[in-house]
Design brief:
- With 112 residues, the protein is an alpha+beta fold.
- The chain has one domain.
- The chain contains three helices and five strands.
- A five-stranded antiparallel sheet has the order 1-3-5-4-2.
Length: 112
């Protein structure tokens, strides 16, 4: 597995990328957000941010990429559990998130 941490400047751009239908995206997990529409997801993150204006960098974006050879073993549940363990080890806890699985590349990958 390869992790890549990217900077995001705004919730809308990152969420639109993670949930981009052109990438064959599947929303496989979320916490603390309304998932009935992209606008509600974005607003859920904004609302939470406004509760604590002291927090500086509020937008994060992490991709986890897996080997093509492991494709047949990578269920959505396995990828969700891997993402949750990754976040825990990185000290990312008690926070909102979404996890989207993309199918636009040969290698399996998810975005948090």
């Amino acid at each position: 597995m390869i992790a890549k941490i990217m900077k995001g400047s705004g919730f809308k751009g990152v969420i639109n990328y993670i949930l981009d239908p052109k990438k064959g995206t599947e929303l496989i997990d979320s916490s603390g957000v309304r998932t009935d529409s992209i606008n509600h997801i974005v607003q859920s993150f904004i609302d939470q941010t406004e509760l604590n204006p002291r927090v500086g960098k509020v937008v994060g974006h992490i991709s986890l990429s897996f080997s093509v050879q492991d494709s047949s073993k990578l269920s959505n549940e396995f990828m969700v559990q891997t993402a949750r363990k990754y976040m825990e080890k990185m000290g990312i806890k008690d926070t909102q998130y979404i996890i989207g699985r993309h199918f636009d590349k040969e290698h399996p990958h998810i975005h948090i």
